[in-house]
Amino acid sequence: MKEVILVKYGEMALKGLNKHSFEKLLMQQIRNRLHPLGEFGYTCAQSTIYIVPQDERISLDAAVERLKRIFGIATICRACSCEKSMEDIMAKSVDYLRETLETAVSFKVEAKRADKQFPLKSPEICMELGGFLCEQFPALQVDVHTPDITVMVDIRDTNAFIYAEKIKGAGGLPLGSSGKAMLLLSGGIDSPVAGYMLAKRGVIISAVHFASPPYTSERARLKVEQLCEKMTDYCREMHFYCVPFTEIQETLKNKCPEEYFTILMRRLMMLIAQEIAQKEGASALITGESVGQVASQTLQAMVCTDAVCKMPVFRPCIGLDKTEIIEIARKIDTFDISIMPYEDCCTVFTPKHPKLHPQLERIEAAQERGDFAALIRKAVDETECKVISGRG
Amino acid sequence: MEIYLDNAATTKPYTSVVQAVADSMERVYGNPSSLHKIGLQAELLVTAQRKTIAEALGCEPECILFTSGATESNNLALRGAAAVYGKRKPHIVASAVEHASVSSTLDALEAQGFRVTRVLPDSEGRFTSKEFLQAITEDTCLVSMMAYENETGHRLPVSSVFTTLRRRYPHIIRHCDFVQGFMKDSTTVDLLAADLLSVSAHKIHGPKGIGALYIRKGIRLQPILTGGKQEKSLRPGTEAVPLIAGFGEAVRQHENKLYDFGKQTERCYNALESRLREMDGITINRFMEGTTYILNFSVQGIRSETMLHFLESKGIYVSSGSACAKGARSHVLSAYGISDDRVDSALRVSFSEENTVEEVIALTEAIAQGQRQLIHK
């Protein structure tokens, strides 16, 4: 019995004349991701990619696990390939779906006949196969409205396919179809989620992190690298920039009013991130901010921060509650790393009473007190870049 | 001449494992919990080994918890899961042939008020998934099955039982004692559909005193020790960094030898089996499919221990049942319905990839000599 994987793409199928370029990207991602598992054959027809393992020893479980993390895929189905005859379809369905049908209470059959030469029409296929399965599994009931199991029959040009389970894919658009952006990655729960959400829309993600040794530790930096590594499951290879931030933070602490510390720090972070983004060829910044979560994330504070930005700043978590963000963090498996208790640069020197509703002119005046242009230059020059490659 | 045929009891550590343990003791002596660089180095060493072991089992590194060995892993898995999931559902299902570290733990849980169903093989000595599934009741919280039974090498239908359980009763916790399968069978935790899985280093040429427990994400356990926050508070106590280093190295070495291991143990198994079948007075204790690295047989009329010591005098080392059950009659062999006489004369031979067919021939010749020379009961 030959098992194959059917991959169906989501909204990409709705694209017009440029659909081909999306398909090409998706195909490339799938090939790269499955390559380490062995050799596969690929065919593409009617918004479905047929993936046929060329070697019996290839684990389809592992292949499905990998496919689940590729953006652009709406559903994944493991299917059994059969000859285009009702006899073979019936025989293989019993074999292939035995375990599923034995444990189910109700089922229905759905058929799709892409090859109109096939002698039976779709409803006839359903009736014939459904009747046969009822005989084979007497405990099974037919329920066309809310069945436990829907047995799908797909009649194609060269083969027919049967399958019962649809696995939800990652959705979104294939990575690389929407340019590149720079993610400000602190090590907390929100920023990896923000990166994931943009990557889902096809954006290639690079990350920038601010380290303030000895106020922050080597472990804190390693934690962020670990987060990047986790994110590569979805984002593939990532460029990780680590900015030495100690001097700037110390200057801020010494020269500027305490209540403006956080806002000023974020403005400087934006300026640095922007410069690195330009070098990297990224066209936007991404942060994990959510309105009102902390003092620097009030609307006024964001206005003051954005005043220094020439690039658009995307904040995909902006309207989400913490619990909703955590739910996504758990899904992409970054949560457990994020909650490791190391001090990060955002929590160093936090003022007791930060300004909640800062005014831009006062902030700008406060920033004049230090020679930050030179410090920024130095920080950018001393930034280290590391390529975090995907995990196989 | 030394012919070591007791690899299911323990294995000789690889040279590189000994090196890794010594290296770590000399150079990476920090406490992984210390905040400074020396501590960080030790932490990184532990993290790297965790990753190696996770890759070998096909899981995420965070799911791997280091323990002092499979006995502790089994204890933590069973006691820890029973305490969390067994409050309202006090029923546990296991095979009747589990290793003492599982079966005695189940005895202890039984004394605490849990009900335990121990599934026996059918009249022909075979385990099928049906028996296990039939033992499930509404208040079953936990099912524990070993992947390869350590005395006869039988393969229990773990994957089919666990896959069905996952589908039908997803709330039941599935634990697998994978000690005899680890790095010998290239399966993954997902293919086995296990929630908890115990492994040990010293069965794969690693150091003794170190093992691991795989814990699927989302499964909660109650720790059996109290103390510091190491290993996510599930296993307090400073990590055994040198042993962990040796464990990781053993996995890396064994990974390269997985193919050789399969081929060479099969060669030895087939050579031994065919020769034993030609000899008089020998019955092979194998009733279902199993691993080729363990072969159990009985030599009619000669007590296991007598034959074991006779072979020892020839420089050949085998075992009489599980090394953990020194002297006592094996409850495992009896569970298959083997007569007491046959149990008392049973010997277990277990191979590694380093054994040869010549060694097997020497063994069979020595057994034949023993049969002629030793006084039968």
Describe the structure.
Chain A has 392 residues and is of the alpha/beta class. Chain A has 2 domains: 2-171, VC0802-like (2-Layer Sandwich); 180-388, Rossmann fold. Chain A has 14 helices and 15 strands. In chain A, the strands form 2 sheets. In chain A, strands 1, 2, 3, 4, 5, 6, 7, 8 and 9 form a 9-stranded mixed β-sheet that branches. A 6-stranded mixed β-sheet of chain A has the order 14-13-10-11-12-15, with helices on both faces. The model of chain A has no long low-confidence stretch (mean pLDDT 91). Chain B has 377 residues and is of the alpha/beta class. Chain B has 2 domains: 3-10 and 257-373, Aspartate Aminotransferase, domain 1; 15-253, Aspartate Aminotransferase, domain 2 (3-Layer(aba) Sandwich). In chain B, the strands form 3 sheets. Chain B has a 7-stranded mixed β-sheet with strand order 2-8-7-6-5-3-4, sandwiched between helices. In chain B, strands 9-10-12 form a 3-stranded antiparallel β-sheet. A two-stranded parallel sheet of chain B has the order 1-11. In chain B, helix 3 (70-85) runs parallel beside helix 4 (100-111). Chain B is globular, with a radius of gyration of 21 Å. The chains are: A alpha/beta (392), B alpha/beta (377).
| Rg value of chain A | 27 Å
Percentage beta strand of chain B: 5-15%
| CATH architecture call of the largest domain in chain A | 3-Layer(aba) Sandwich
Mean of the pLDDT scores of chain A? Answer: 91
Q: What string gives the helices and strands of chain A in order?
A: EHEEHEHHEHEEEEEHEHEHHEHEHHHHE
Number of domains of chain B: 2
CATH second-level architecture of the largest domain in chain B: 3-Layer(aba) Sandwich
Largest sheet of chain B: 7 strands, mixed
The CATH topology assignment of the largest domain in chain B is Aspartate Aminotransferase, domain 2
Low-confidence stretches of chain A: none
Secondary-structure class of chain B: alpha/beta
Question: What is the CATH first-level class name of the largest domain in chain B?
Answer: Alpha Beta
